[in-house]
Structure formats: structure tokens, C-alpha cells
Write a structure and sequence with these properties.
By secondary structure, the protein is mainly α. It has 13 helices and no strands. The N and C termini lie far apart (89 Å).
Amino acid sequence: MAEESVLVEGSSFMDPFKGLLLTYFMPESCYDEFFLNFNFLDVPCLKIILSKGLGIGIILGSVMVKLPQIFKLMGAKSAEGLSFHTVLLELLAITGTMAYSIANKFPFSAWGEALFLMLQTVSIGFLIQHYGGRTSRALLFLVVYFCLLVLVLSPVTPMSVVTFLQASNMPAIIVGRLIQAASNFRNGHTGQLSAVSVFLLFAGSLARIFTSLQETGDSLMALTYVISSACNGVIALQVLYYWNSSPERKKKSE
């Protein structure tokens, strides 16, 4: 009887979901705090859950964050308004974040969207080259990038190089977004740039400032997302400013 009472006291109605919760959302101490002590206002645990939830949400959102951009390019069969150099610099930033996070063994919820963003950004780079009449160069781009990716993620690459890649994210993001912003300004429209993708990237980078501080405690990661949010915000403002402009209307006015 004594053993049964101890078992009952140490159990919770959430026990069937305990494995799932501990794997993805909280440490065991927070599980005990919430579902055994019924203290749902524990601030440190609330921060952990919020961070984990945001991280998972960002990863799930990243699976399709650039799909509107890809579909828009394929529908128009044109990459007008998009800069291939911006794509290259964005890939540098994404690859650096992914390699740095894997090397430091950060939880997947802290960086997982980089994997899906990388695949989609590579696709956009391929389409820009393909619709520009340079399909052979597009195929070469795929081969070279994935060979370099394997090399960067392999144990052969020193940690100092991986850290340098992560540090180079900030200038890469700034220059890449400035190139895109200058292209938008010069054209007087945002071309085939997808508003949905731009706004989702802006929201995701803002949320990542909090999750990177909470889950990794890495100031370099957090600063990267601060810079990314500011730059994505500039592009988002341009999308709003040029909302009623388009390549077709620009040509008609000329």
C-alpha cells in the first residue's frame, strides 16, 4: 500500500505524454514543477517552453517559408528583381549558422530552420540562373555548393574556420540585403520577390533573437539574428512601399 501511495503521489495525468514533452519542450525539472507541483507560473520554465515552442514553430514554418518565392518564380518563369549575389551571400550565412550550430552541438530546435532554408535558397539560386538562360551554370552551382557543404560539415574543417564562417554572417547578411534593397530601389519595384516569404523571414529572425539567447546563450548567434532582423525589416518595408508597383506597370509608365 505504501508503495502504491508513493507511486500515486509521484505520478501525473500528463505521464502518457511525458516522453514527448521531455524530448521537445522541457527538462524533467520543469515537468515536475508544472504537473506534479502544479506551479504553472514558474518563470524560468515558462521561458524554456516559450523558447522551445517558438523554435519548433520556426522550424515548421521554415519548411515552406520560401515556397511562395519558388512558386512565384516558376509561375512567372522569370527571376526579374532577384539578385543571384544576394542568394550566394544568404547561403553563406545559412551554411555558417548550420555548421556552427552542429559543431557546438546546439539543440536542433535552436537552428533547424537553417537546413530547410538552405534547401529552398539553393533552389531559388538554381532558378535564377535557369530562367536567366544559364542552366549549365545553374547545375554547376548545385554541384559546387553541395561539395563545399560536405567539406564544411566534415571533421576535416577546423573549429576556427567554422567560427569564422559564423562571424562572417553579419557582413554577408548586410551586404546581401543591401544588394537586394538597391536592386529594388533601382527598378522601382520588388519584381518577383514574394511578400509572404519576406514577412515570414522577418518574423522568424525576430523570434530567433529570443530563442538563440535562451537555448544556446551564444551572443554571436543572437547578434547575427539582430542584424538579420534589421536587414529583413528593410526589405519588408520596401515590399510595402512598392506594393502597387510591378514590372508590367513600370514598363507601361515608360
